[in-house]
Amino acid sequence: MQIARFTFNDFQENTYVLYDESNECLIIDPGCNNTFEQKTITDFIADNMLTPTMLINTHCHIDHVLGNRYISDKYALALYAHEIEKKVLASQPMVAQYYGLYYDPSPDITGVLEANAVINFGNNELKILFVPGHSPGHICLFHQKSNQLIAGDALFKESIGRTDLPGGNYDTLISSIRNELFTLPESTIVYSGHGDSTTIGHELKNNPFFR
Ligand SMILES: [Zn+2]
To answer: Measured in angstroms, how far is the CA atom of residue 165 from the centroid of ligand 1?
Structure first.
């Protein structure tokens, strides 16, 4: 499984495209918010002759959903996320207005991803980990075969997600990370919603929130 990262919008949000030799791909947290960013991701998909099969949000904060409508329409994809994020998604038009951002409202979540569900694409499968605290229905996606994790905004390199937004909870986030992420193999590569990738082993040793 290959992972391509794109950094989009005013929040420097990481959008991920996961693909394999079958040429099927998943699009996670599309933050593309102008024609240049839209072209960047669609050119990548076209150049690699990929067929997107799922649109997924780790959580529905504005920086992660800005490109949902465009991607959903372009590839005729339903939106998958945790059920709890429906109410977070519903508040994003107001959030976009607050930040003065252009936002073509996302389609609703019609595909529900539950804790420990397994999703398939191409010749690969990903396990859904429920990691609330940054957002109440936040999920991460774990590729067991290669120990790679799409972490959203739960865990960052030497940091964690903020917990001061509606539905956030610091104690919940700390215990989610301990129970769901720090139990993964130390060699697991962590691809976060912002900034560089890291590993579970590096975070176990160096993350200041877990001293
Ligand atoms: Zn977020």
So the answer is: 9
Around Cβ 39, how many Cβ atoms within 10 Å? Answer: 12
139 close to 129: Cβ distance less than 8 angstroms: yes
What distance lies between CA 16 and its chain's CA centroid? 7
User: Over the chain, what is the mean pLDDT?
Assistant: 97
CATH number of the domain that residue 14 is part of: 3.60.15.10
Res 198: pLDDT: 98
Q: How many angstroms does the Cα of residue 82 sit away from the middle of ligand 1?
A: 14
181 and 153 Cβ atoms separated by less than 8 Å: no
Q: What is the pLDDT of residues 118-166, one digit of tens each?
A: 999 999 999 999 999 999 999 999 999 999 999 999 999 999 999 999 9
Q: How many CB atoms lie within 10 A of CB 161?
A: 26
Owning domain of residue 195: 2-210
Whether pLDDT at 211 is above 90: no
Residue 143 CA, ligand 1 centroid: distance in Å? 21
Number of domains the chain contains: 1
pTM: 0.97
